[in-house]
Amino acid sequence: MDYKGINKMPVDKWILEPINRFIHKSSTSGIILFSAALLAIILTNSPWSEQFHHIWEIEFSIGFNGSYISKSLHHWINDGLMAVFFFVVGLELKREIMAGELSTPKKAILPIAAAFGGMIFPALIYIFFNKSGETSAGWGIPMATDIAFALGVLYLLGDRVPLSLKIFLTALAIADDIGAVLVIAFFYTSEINYASLLEAGGFLAVLIIANRLGVRNTLFYAIVGIGGVWLAFLLSGVHATIAAVLAAFTIPASVKINEAYYINRLEDLTQQFKDAEPNQNPLVTTDQLHILEEIRDISKKALTPLQRMEHGLHPLVAFIIMPIFALSNGGVEISSDFLQQATSPVAMGVFAGLLAGKFFGVIGIVNLFLKMKWAVLPEGMNRQHLIGAGFLAAIGFTMSLFISDLAFIQKEYLDQARIGILGASVIASFAGYFTIKNASKKQSKNGS
């Protein structure tokens, strides 16, 4: 490609381009997320631990006309910022169901089965350690896979990993997200205010009707989704993140102009731009400006609002929201009774549930489906790749921390759950990385 016509400024060469390369690396979001969690642990065990803890307890209020909702910063992060995370999860789910790895039974059967096994086994193992009492509420904690972390570890291996493995793990994690959302909706919901829930349903109906009528303005969906659906869910007792997933499913997923029209019109506008009389200075002419604006307009119409929103929100979620969540939720206090906490029923249930439950759940169900000939292993994948995927599915981090905050009120149980989550996630990351690396080496030798 010829770059002679591009004026590169020093800020582009030395600052913007290196940052863009770093951001667009597939492993970057996982690295930043891990760094935020590590920083949380360091600060929690530093001389500034008390100040760090109190930051998240600062109260914020929103409201008008004498009606206010007051919550701590920690709650606003978990109920508000994480709603954006779940909104993006909802957009990804809709895209995958419409035209991705969950769009046909043949594509979806194996990852969905793997996700199902990877949810049931961890829950059963946790219940084995916590049969009754307050701690039994944490059975949902080891059920979820952290898609950002799992794929981040996978992408560290680069081109040595078969594409089929990346697709399989992505589909598994997305199917797992569906299960996690349903678990939160049905089992981690407080007392329900049916009037507020009815209001939320009304706002959702408005979004669905707007979609059917062809409304494509993303600002409209944002205003109704946040000011209506999210706020009504927040007041209803059903966790507000569910509102984000439901709102995501109302976002239009169709283009306004088809591909053939777009190509023809773009070629026509490009020719018009070539024929336009140029200025003899850095500014474009009025005619050129109108042509460029029309190119921008038709390019926007050639994209679905769903894909535009997903693409636009992904950096915000990956590089701001999730690290803030990890910083506010990932702190574990390493005190004199750390060993006692690490061997508590909660910590052991979460640790064993994630590491053993996820691994044997995913591997066991997949092998059953392969043996019964209900599905076949994706081309390019071998059994060792599958074992590595089983380990990576055991990285629970973000979703597990989120569910633990819903399951427990007592700080003691929260700390124990965090120890189990972090311990299992770190071991699973290394085990998955080296297993897949070894599998790819063997495959490369056999193929050469």
Describe the protein:
The structure is a single chain. With 448 residues, the chain is mainly α. The protein has two domains: 27-189 and 239-254 and 304-447, Na+/H+ antiporter like domain (Na+/H+ antiporter like fold, Up-down Bundle), CATH 1.20.1530.10; 259-300. The longest helix is centred in the last third of the chain and has 37 residues, at 411-447. The mean pLDDT is 82. It is globular. The protein has helices spanning 10-24, 28-44, 49-55, 73-99, 105-129, 147-155, 163-187, 194-213, 218-236, 240-248, 259-275, 286-301, 305-329, 338-342, 345-371, 383-392, 397-407, 411-447; strands at 59-64, 67-72. It starts with 9 loop residues before the first helix and ends with a helix. It has 18 helices and two strands. It has a two-stranded antiparallel ribbon.
Helix content: over 70%
Through-space gap between termini: 32 Å
Envelope shape: globular
What characterizes the major β-sheet?
Answer: 2 strands, antiparallel
Strands of the widest sheet, in order across it, are 1-2
CATH architectural group of the largest domain: Up-down Bundle
Q: Compute the number of helices.
A: 18
Rg, Å, rounded:
24 Å
The helix/strand order is: HHHEEHHHHHHHHHHHHHHH
User: What's the multimeric state?
Assistant: single chain
What's the number of extended β-strand segments? 2
Q: Proportion of β residues?
A: under 5%
Return the average pLDDT rounded to an integer: 82
- Report the top-level CATH class of the largest domain: Mainly Alpha
CATH fold-type name of the largest domain: Na+/H+ antiporter like fold
Uncertain segments are none
**CATH homologous superfamily designation of the largest domain:** Na+/H+ antiporter like domain
Question: Structural class, judged by helices and strands?
Answer: mainly alpha
